[in-house]
Design brief:
Elements (H helix, E strand, L loop, with lengths): L17 H4 L3 H33 L2 E5 L2 E5 L15 H5 L41 E2 L6 E7 L4 H19 L4 E7 L5 H14 L4 H11 L11 H11 L4 H9 L4 H13 L4 E2 L1 E4 L2 E4 L4 H15 L1
Parallel strand pairs: 4-5
Antiparallel strand pairs: 1-2, 1-6, 3-5, 4-7, 7-8
Helix pairs in contact: 5-6, 5-8, 6-7, 7-8
Amino acid sequence: MPDSSMYDQPLVGQKRPSALRDVPALVWVLTAVIVVLAVVIGFLVADRNGADDAASNGGNSNSSSGAASHSQPADGQSAGQPDGQSDKSAQAAPGTNFDEPNGDPKLYGPAGTISSNEDIDKVHRRADNDPFARGALDAPVVISEFSDFECPFCSRFHNQTAPALIAEYVDKGLVRIEWNDFPVNGPHAIDGAKAGRAAAAQGKFAEFQKAAFAASADMDGHPNFDMDDYVRFAEEAGIEDIERFRQEAGDDTYTQVVEDARDYAASLGITGTPSFVVGRQFVSGAQPEDVFRQVIEEELSRDA
């Protein structure tokens, strides 16, 4: 917006120079109108451009030179479905195989070789008893999430958006969510991913995830959790063998697989957290709930 100091306005109580006093009043009025219009138009253009940038980027934590940089999540209105499911999701056949999350805690990677965008479906593992998955194995739509326990935008997604999606789609067999470690927010992120896998080894990843993100819900920036925090989350999650959890979360049991999982995500071209592959569509950042609903409904329509 232009600075008002750019225009030669007389001080209060001060007369204009005689040359200016000779200018007809109509000219001053027209000049003032032009200035006001220029200011208003400039403001509207800047405001629209800013809104467009926010809507396209969403809340996202990016990996760059080993550090994280954050952009603000999109707020306000966005294109999406109205409240409640559409006919598309009502027509899609829900999955029924709600398998147990007691599989290999070192699981990571795709369902097959990914060599082009045409292979995007292979990002979804659909592995039996996946300890990092929630929802029916045969759900028509899979959301592959690339996330990090140290990411504040991941926390926002899990606290503000995920609960509604789980209740409306996951619990009804329409959507399956698969977690992928992408620890890009420093050493604490690596430690958090290892702790998550130590929880998965005892079939309690979802409960551990819920406790960890609930703890960071009201924090600004990275929570910088430590081992005492992880043990507390494990206890809240109902993990029985806490000593086993503490040891595996703290030693190198899962160091290599966490690094491999991070490299796998980077090989897909993913640069920030949270990132999602929803069916065959990519969603970047902690977008509003309506954005996820719209994409889910579009993907369900393929199945229907």
